[in-house]
Amino acid sequence: MWTANLFQTTTGQIGAQLHIEAASWSISLNEIETLSIQLRKSDLPKVDLKKWLAPWWAGVILSYDGVPIIGGPIVARNAESFRFVYLEVRGIRQVLAKRLVAREMSDWSKLAGSVVQYKGYSLGTIAKKVVQLSTGPKMGGALPISYPIGDQTVKDDADHQRTYEGFNIGNISCHDVLTKISEVSRGPDIMFKPRLVRDDQLTFDMVYGDEFDPRIDQKGTPVWDTTAVNGEVTDLDVTHTGTYQTNRVYSSGAGASAGTIIKVATDQKTIQKGFPLLETTVSISDSKNGNVVMNHAKGQLAANIAGLTEIQMTVRADMENYVGSFWSGDLAHIIFDNTWLSFPEGTTKMRILNMNGNLSNNVKMSLQTED
């Protein structure tokens, strides 16, 4: 059963329950979650609604059988009609899109010359420290984010160094920095998963991949059998795309004109097999680190070196694999019979990229094949 509650964005303190008329939600890997809610005016809680529906001050957490699934701040003043109120909610990472990776300063005239630098940590740990800097130390910066993963130190090489300069304020929003960390070669997946500390207290666990495995750790591997009669899988479509397929990526970093840092990653194997040269570009204009610029080229190449096979699958999420037991980013095993042209008979490993739904027991997912 789906339930929803208000909460205060900065503290995670849970408030009144909401009686939801309708809702739709979406959780994508390494992105900001979205939640849209419709409420009857006659069912609104008897609280100070000017405060508890105020954008950014208040948020909503949506749970399934008591397990928090998606939540974050209300991001726009509520729309309404004669009978209904409509709320737009985004994941807690939306707040980080409005935070800069810059230190709080008593003299802001010195900001342009300030530098934030991390060395000798795994990329996941650097991501955590970026979030910590963007929250607690800042005036009004507190957010209910927990950090269950300890620091991971690694060899202090150029691949594990990140520098954020104060004059570059247009390129150092915390959300954008996290995205760039995830997009390099073997960059970690990063998610903020809601969790109840107690009945009246919410937190968001920042989880991410480590130096050895960029994927987020998962407790178990869901198995969906498309061959089962009256099973969990109720609908499935397969799509293929070569739109973004490439075998050479040009990555540009900081600099101007002929002084711009440019790195190139090429897959010679596909060219040797007779594929045409397919070139694309990626820009990391704020990075002076040539290794980082190169790793963005490698990451883009690895993600698009082959045409993508994706499935859109709808499952009943009130059975063995229930909502809250699997997440975007998880590896899943999908069982196919011999009638599918796109997959061999048996089990195929796939990665959940997106999961979305409403207030029913059905969850729609996008999955891609995993090597």
Describe the structure.
The radius of gyration is 22 Å and the shape is globular. Helix 3 packs antiparallel against helix 4 (174-183). It has helices spanning 49-52, 93-96, 123-134, 174-183, 268-272, 290-304, and strands at residues 2-8, 14-18, 20-28, 34-40, 58-64, 67-73, 79-80, 84-90, 115-119, 145-146, 161-165, 190-198, 201-208, 223-225, 233-241, 248-252, 262-266, 279-283, 308-316, 331-336, 346-357, 362-369. Strands 3, 4, 7, 8, 14, 15, 19, 20, 21 and 22 form a ten-stranded mixed sheet that branches. Strands 2-1-5-6 form a four-stranded antiparallel sheet. The chain has 371 residues and is mainly beta. The longest helix is centred in the last third of the chain and has 15 residues, at 290-304. The protein is 13% helix and 38% strand.
State the share of residues found in helices, binned by percent: 10-25%
**CA-based shape:** globular
Termini separation: 35 Å
What is the CA-based Rg, rounded?
22 Å
Tell me the number of helical segments per DSSP (H or I, 4 or more residues long). Answer: 6
Give a brief outline of the structure.
This protein has six helices and 22 strands. The chain has 371 residues and is mainly beta. The two termini are 35 Å apart.
Write a concise keyword list for the protein shown above.
single chain; mainly beta; ten-stranded mixed β-sheet; four-stranded antiparallel β-sheet
